[in-house]
Amino acid sequence: MEVKTRAPGKIILAGEHAVVHGSTAIAACIDLYTYVSLRSSLSENDDTLKLHLKDMELEFSWSIGRIKETLSHLGSPFPSTPTSCTIESIRCIAALVEEQNIPEAKIGLATGVSAFLWLYTSIQGFKPATVVVTSDLPLGAGLGSSAAFCVALSAALLGFSDSVSLDKKHQGWLTYGDSDLDLLNKWAFEGEKLIHGKPSGLDNTVSTYGKIIKFKSGSLTRIKSNMPLKMLITNTKVGRNTKALVAGVTERTFRHPDVMGSVFNAVDSISKELSVILESPALDDLSKTEKEEKLEELMEMNQGLLQCMGVSHASIETVLRTTLKYKLASKLTGAGGGGCVLTLLPSCRNSKEMSVNQQSENAYRNSHSTCLCKHSHLCSIFLYSVLCLLDYNYQCYQEQLLIK
Ligand SMILES: Nc1ncnc2c1ncn2[C@@H]1O[C@H](COP(=O)(O)OP(=O)(O)OP(=O)(O)O)[C@@H](O)[C@H]1O
Ligand SMILES: C[C@@](O)(CCO)CC(=O)[O-]
Ligand SMILES: [Mg+2]
């Protein structure tokens, strides 16, 4: 039997980091996915668990005997009871990961492989299988690659187990029901914990339920918006690690609790105002322009507060300066420290101001050519960095998690 799943990445319109400390955040899915295929062993003699990270050209393999020897004390599987990995189990899993000798240049993947082993053994137990992972998402760039990985993996593992009610004979994509989504979101959160340290749950929740959500202290509210927004996503290509950035903000909060408390409160207000704007009807072009201008201002204010938290970066500031030349507002998205920047492309701007759109679209189309890069500072940013120009209509992006 084979199960294939996919789960989307995300952008955060407001509230990253502050959401870890209890503030409201607004996030939406994007149409870039992580895909997982889980296939049971074809031959009786094959007694191994294989993980193939196809984009990275890495293959890992453990004998089931070795996994049992290390983890059988856990009493797995327990698919219906999402459970946190204890410090002792983290140590055991780390030993299994270390044996695989991940190349130094790709050592960041070790946490993803640990999350895989925890989710696999907890949900499937000690059965041989082959798991293949591919992704449209850049890893460690703020678009929720870790969450999409954990959600797609949990979905595949649960789809394989008897703890969710799926028509196993169905051909083609299926969508999980709400109670199954709740279960898989909880498992994905446990995987995220192994990658992020102290995640808020925002990324796995938006990847699990899809569309656009408001999220605060672990609970989500779906946002109903008829307001199409065009967002440019620029990848600075500066690598960073969400776990370290989240820990840095927490340390700053210990040093300056009152100041950071005020910063988090301000972010909470920004997210709340942003959700009201998204949900209010735009009756004509004028009110749409006003709404977009307010959104731009809120994005700029959020970016200022993210700078206060210490998670901006010179590469992010360069994108901000460049887009500002064209009167476009931007903010980092995700954990910051590099990674991706969001720019709102307003629908009602004159052509001169919007020339940045044209240039970035050109850069996107020519993204394999280097000549543009040499001739234009603007394009040198966008040439290698524009990920996708999203015609970002909340009504269109209703993709939820799908299972095949
Ligand atoms: N397709 C994948 N295969 C294996 N591991 C993955 C995959 N996608 C993500 N990961 C794991 O997640 C890590 C990146 O997660 P991280 O949280 O740092 O960044 P992100 O999720 O892309 O950005 P953000 O959390 O800011 O949205 C990788 O180093 C790896 O351990
Ligand atoms: C930085 C953060 O707020 C978002 C990362 O995409 C971390 C989290 O919410 O878990
Ligand atoms: Mg992440």
Question: What would you say about this model in short?
Answer:
The chain is α+β, with helices and mostly antiparallel strands. It has two domains: 2-222, Ribosomal Protein S5, domain 2, CATH 3.30.230.10; 229-392, GHMP kinase, C-terminal domain (Alpha-Beta Plaits). The protein has helices spanning 64-71, 87-98, 109-124, 145-160, 178-196, 202-209, 242-255, 257-279, 285-309, 314-325, 355-365, 371-375, 377-383; strands at 2-14, 25-40, 48-53, 58-63, 129-135, 174-175, 212-216, 219-222, 229-235, 330-332, 340-345, 386-392, 402-403.
Fraction in helix:
40-55%
What is the number of independent domains?
2
Calculate the mean pLDDT score and round it.
Answer: 86
Give the names of the bound compounds.
adenosine-5'-triphosphate, (R)-mevalonate, magnesium ion
Large-scale geometry:
globular
| Number of strand elements | 13
Tally the helices.
13
Strand fraction band? 15-25%
How would you sum up this structure, described in words?
The protein has 404 residues and is α+β, with helices and mostly antiparallel strands. It has 2 domains: 221 residues, Ribosomal Protein S5, domain 2; 164 residues, 2-Layer Sandwich (Alpha-Beta Plaits), CATH 3.30.70. Strands 1, 2, 3, 4, 5, 6, 7, 8 and 13 form a 9-stranded mixed β-sheet that branches. Strands 10-11-9-12 form a 4-stranded antiparallel β-sheet. The longest helix has 25 residues. It is globular, with a radius of gyration of 22 Å. The C terminus is likely disordered. The site of magnesium ion has 6 residues, from helix 4.
